[in-house]
Structure formats: structure tokens, C-alpha cells
């Protein structure tokens, strides 16, 4: 198993541009989540999904959209990038009753 | 979700036990204590979790006080590779439903293992 994979690893955007961060898992996990981590801080939940076709907001959802058309993929869309969205983004997944969340390696995003 | 309080940083000598404390005085009766760690620039890694009994796995031991208001993560023989930020998290039990999917991360404890 590849586990949780994220692309790209690094991205630089200009203010106002849009882009999609990709996340995929090959473990057949129902739950998937997106977190962001700002320098010196813990992770904050952006959006999550409990299964294909079902998504919900986390702590900091503004400026981000998600969809879950398949069990494997959970892309995160930035609609109009802002400097405040400069961060490291982590995707995670787990089974419905699993205790452990598996995290991807992260995407480092800079918005200028 | 219950809040947790952890020291900002700790040092430990290589080969010695590292004891990382966590206070969670407002924990509810059905909430679990989870520990994750994050090695620099990597995604967080699950370590261990427990409800009220002490737990041990190949990575660490978790000691939860009888009143469940605090816990200690023990790395029995710390190595340089254990240098990381350790997060103590309290969350509802596993299962379906939005609340159980959330891991609310604080700022954690930076453990520096010294040679």
C-alpha cells in the first residue's frame, strides 16, 4: 500500500489564483480529512468526509471547497488564493471505527 | 471537545525514559486520550490511545490517572529519532458521526533528545 499520497509537494501561487491539492489513499478508508498547519502551530481541521458523497466543515473552512466522488480521492480546492492561506496542508484518512489516522506527507503552499 | 495542556518543550538524554505529561481536566467520561507525534516537516504519526486503563504498545506506554484528568506518555528508551513534537488529544469514541472524525491539535510538546 502507498498509504496516503498528496500532490504537489510544493506550490507557489499568486493572490487570486485557484488550484486543487490532491489527496488519495489506497486503504479503502471511509474517513478523510484536510488539515492546515501554520508555522509554530498545531494542525487545524479544514474539511472532512465520512464517505463518498458526504463532506462537512471543520474549524477553518472559509476559502476552501472539497468533494468526495470516490472513496480513494479527496481533493481540496482553493477558490481564490490569499496570503493567509500560506501553510502546510496535510490530508489524513482512517477507517470508520479505526483509532489511528494516517497522514500524508503534506503540501507546502506559498501565496504571494 | 476537552482541552489539553502540555509543556512547551522538554529535554531527555538518549537512552533514558522520556515522560511527557498532559492535563485534560475537563475530559468527559467517554472521551479517549490520543497521542500523536510529528517529526520535523512530516505528517503526524499515531502513537497510542486509551480510555482509562494503562496501555502499552511497541512504541510507548500511556498512563492515565484514576480520575482521568491527566496522563503521561512514556517512551522507555528515547533515541535521537524520537525528537519531535508530541500532541496529546482528547476526542469522543470511534465510530460514525462528524465529531468523532475530528482531531483537535494543540501546540504540543517539543521533545529534544540529547546525545
List the total number of helices of chain B.
Answer: 0
Outline of chain B, from the CA principal axes?
Answer: globular
Q: What percentage of amino acids of chain A are in beta strands?
A: over 45%
| Mean model confidence by pLDDT of chain B | 89
Tell me the strand percentage band of chain B. Answer: 35-45%
Task: Give the % helix of chain B.
Answer: under 10%
The tally of beta strands of chain B, per DSSP, is 9
**Broad shape of chain A:** globular
What does this structure look like?
The complex is a heterodimer of chains A (112) and B (115). Chain A is built from no helices and eleven strands. Chain A is mainly β. Chain A has strands spanning 4-7, 10-13, 19-25, 31-37, 43-51, 54-57, 64-66, 76-78, 87-94, 102-103, 107-111. In chain A, the strands form two sheets. In chain A, strands 2, 4, 5, 6, 9, 10 and 11 form a seven-stranded mixed sheet that branches. Chain A has a four-stranded antiparallel sheet with strand order 1-3-8-7, with no helix packed on it. Chain A starts with a strand and ends with a strand. In chain B, a hairpin with a 6-residue loop joins strand 3 (32-38) and strand 4 (45-50). The A-B interface holds A 4, 31, 33, 35, 40-45, 48, 50, 56, 58-59, 88, 90, 92, 94, 96-106 and B 32, 34, 36, 41-46, 49, 87, 94-98, 101-108.
Secondary structure elements and pairings:
The complex is a heterodimer of chains A (112) and B (115).
Chain A: E1 4-7, E2 10-13, E3 19-25, E4 31-37, E5 43-51, E6 54-57, E7 64-66, E8 76-78, E9 87-94, E10 102-103, E11 107-111
Parallel strand pairs in A: 2-11
Antiparallel strand pairs in A: 1-3, 3-8, 4-5, 4-9, 5-6, 7-8, 9-10, 9-11
Chain B: E1 9-13, E2 18-23, E3 32-38, E4 45-50, E5 55-56, E6 61-64, E7 70-75, E8 84-91, E9 109-114
Amino acid at each position: 500500500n502507498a498509504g496516503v499520497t498528496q500532490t504537489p509537494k510544493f506550490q507557489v501561487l499568486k493572490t487570486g489564483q485557484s488550484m486543487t491539492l490532491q489527496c488519495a489513499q489506497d486503504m479503502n478508508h471511509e474517513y478523510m480529512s484536510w488539515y492546515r498547519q501554520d508555522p509554530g502551530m498545531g494542525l487545524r481541521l479544514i474539511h472532512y468526509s465520512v464517505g463518498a458523497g458526504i463532506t462537512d466543515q471543520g474549524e477553518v473552512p472559509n476559502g476552501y471547497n472539497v468533494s468526495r466522488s470516490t472513496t480513494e480521492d479527496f481533493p481540496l480546492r482553493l477558490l481564490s488564493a490569499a496570503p493567509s492561506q500560506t501553510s502546510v496542508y496535510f490530508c489524513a484518512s482512517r477507517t470508520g471505527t479505526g483509532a489511528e489516522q494516517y497522514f500524508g506527507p503534506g503540501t507546502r503552499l506559498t501565496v504571494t | 471537545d476537552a482541552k489539553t495542556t502540555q509543556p512547551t518543550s522538554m529535554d531527555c538524554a538518549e537512552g533514558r525514559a522520556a515522560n511527557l505529561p498532559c492535563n485534560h481536566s475537563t475530559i468527559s467520561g467517554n472521551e479517549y486520550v490520543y497521542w500523536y507525534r510529528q517529526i520535523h516537516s512530516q505528517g503526524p504519526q499515531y502513537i497510542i490511545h486509551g480510555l482509562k486503563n494503562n496501555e502499552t504498545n511497541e512504541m510507548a506506554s500511556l498512563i492515565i490517572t484514576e480520575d482521568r484528568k491527566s496522563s503521561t506518555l512514556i517512551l522507555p528508551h528515547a533515541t535521537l529519532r524520537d525528537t519531535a513534537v508530541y500532541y496529546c488529544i482528547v476526542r469522543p469514541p470511534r465510530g460514525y458521526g462528524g465529531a468523532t472524525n475530528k482531531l483537535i491539535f494543540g501546540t504540543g510538546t517539543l521533545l529534544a533528545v540529547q546525545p
